[in-house]
Amino acid sequence: MRFTKLKAAAVLGAALLAGCGGGGGSDTPAVSSPVGAAPGTGPGTTPGSGGTPGTGGTPGTDTVPGAPPAATPGGTWLALTPATVTLSAIEGESTGFRVIGTSSRTFEKPVNMAIIDSKGVVTTDVTISALSQFEYAADLRTAPALAAGSHTTNLEVRLCEDVPTVCSKPLPGSPWYIPVTVNVAPHAQAQQRLTLMPAAFDLATYQGEPLSFELVAQMAGASKPVQIAVVDNAGVLAQGTVMSQDGSTTYRAKLTTSSVLTPGEHSASLEVRACYDEPRECRMPVSGSPWRVPTKVTVKSGINLTALAALPGVAPWSTYNGNATHTGYVPASFDPANFTRRWNRPETGTGFGQAVAIDQGRVFTVAGLSESKWELIAAKEADGEVAWRYHMSRLYNVNPPAAANGKVFVTSTGHEDSFLWVFDQATGQLISKTALSSQWDRYMAPTVVGDMVYTNSGSYGGMVKFNAATNLVEWRNTTLPQYDGWTPAVDGGYAYAYMNSQVYAVDTASGGIAFTIANPSGQWMGWSTSTLALDDKMGFVVHNGRLLGFDLQARTRAWETNGSTIGQPIVAKGVVYSLAEGGSLVEARASTNGMLQWKSPALSNGTVEAAFMRMVVSSNLLFASSATTTVAIDLATHQVVWTYPLGGELAISDRGVLYIVARSGKLAAVNLR
Hints:
Blueprint: H1 5-18, E1 28-29, E2 78-81, E3 85-90, E4 96-103, E5 112-117, E6 127-130, E7 135-141, E8 149-160, E9 176-185, E10 194-197, E11 201-206, E12 212-219, E13 227-231, E14 241-242, E15 244-245, E16 250-256, E17 264-275, E18 291-300, E19 340-345, E20 357-359, E21 362-370, E22 373-380, E23 386-394, E24 397-398, E25 402-404, E26 407-413, E27 419-424, E28 430-435, E29 447-449, E30 452-456, E31 463-467, E32 472-477, E33 489-491, E34 494-499, E35 502-507, E36 513-518, E37 533-535, E38 538-543, E39 546-551, E40 556-560, E41 566-572, E42 575-580, E43 585-590, E44 596-599, E45 612-617, E46 621-626, E47 630-634, E48 640-644, E49 649-652, E50 657-661, E51 667-671
Parallel strand pairs: 3-9, 11-18
Antiparallel strand pairs: 1-5, 2-4, 4-7, 5-8, 6-7, 8-9, 10-12, 12-16, 13-14, 13-17, 15-16, 17-18, 19-51, 20-21, 21-22, 22-23, 24-26, 25-26, 26-27, 27-28, 29-30, 30-31, 31-32, 33-34, 34-35, 35-36, 37-38, 38-39, 39-40, 41-42, 42-43, 43-44, 45-46, 46-47, 47-48, 49-50, 50-51
């Protein structure tokens, strides 16, 4: 039978490479295959004689150490790539390499093949793949038992019409030789192929407050795909984890300390396993594995009920970002060395945590208990105990509370659920419930100025002014557009809002729009907006990644920044602070012209993710919060000087307590003095 060129070339390639491999120390063809047979189904493995018998054969032993015998004439129709192989390996591991065979002629008779390694440098672990109709690749591996040092061999490729261990009828040009050199590094050097960042952990948290942190591994020199896991046998972690691969050589693990650690110091040597199989069993470890990461977790007492007293010159935290101008500023200085956790409250219901209001020694918060069920809770600052709670029944949505003048103000939103609720701070008794006309919106807390309460709500947008002394609506503005996520900022006779790429100034006496200020570079970004922060006749807001400064007297946009700013800006003493570069660091700018004053280092320190969203600022510290972590930044040095293992909404009371409300509804109170 005569093969066509296409078919013959393909079969020849399969026969050539299907049996690649190495012997066990003698001249042994790994596999012999006839043309037309599946790989590995030919005559099989038989002892060889170290050479190729028959005409055209050449001795299998080296005539010059490390060099192949002379090539047989007539063999140019078969090309082997690479012509020579040089590899690096680690003692105890197998390293892969590839040989490609390309044929330019065909044969009428069946052809058998063998590849012989007289020194046991390669294994019989081979994978065959077709690259094209005329090319096949063999993926081979070095022997894992090779000792440290340099090893050389010449792979002998035989193509024969008879059994290749005899090869009395070799094909023209057979055999071919591939010199192979394997440089094997000692096992101890394998430890250097994995770099762990950080190399050790020294962590601090509070009892019952699990701390999340990150371990990064850089892997180099693995001979095939690797899985890496972190194992803790000391009970310091909540559980071990398999590291996720972030790029070809980078692996990351999000770790969490155990929630049942008692006060004191807890030490562990975290085991980092790198394996070629499932790392929990790790029957095929990477040479050098495992690695160790020394870890110390200091757990502080969870309850410190120190005496509380009002801070001179500090007003109650009455609404969103503290006050009617939403500056987020508390005029007091605090020493991080004195910070202790006062108390904490666990998750509530569905875990729908919102910002708090604080007044007269009580913390007011709204909790979602289950679907469409809500309650307003008043907790004592002194010890966190619940003073009262009010079940608000089934409502579409309840927004964060405001508190002032002995009352608590809450809005609910939804077509039939739209109301302004007023409660007595001391008893939780419902004082009034006034119908509003919002749709399915979500807003920030109402803004309180004296007895006047300003909030969002009109038919498809708008603003309302409510008199808390008379429990009557003073006016309703129904001309403002309808946007989510804001509350009025009130100062100097105007209530301000930013939406539809412009500032609206509403006259607080009449409720009419007094003027607008356009943002020339504004783009529509959906039906959500941000709240303006006001300071010294300037207004600040983040829009489309840019921090904007509006001159409210000149009624113009004064400046803007480029970049990827997120979150809500805050302002104090002529400086506006924003979360720049996607929330990874803080920038401080002059409020009048936006000139950069300073920027912090990256807030992520290996224990937190980069996206920080909320801030408050005191006279000497700025507090920034991500989803899992809160940090304090020294305004003089711009460095992080304190870290707490909970993130979320932030507030500072007039008694010097920092409150952190997680998305889960967990509430932590931290003594700042």
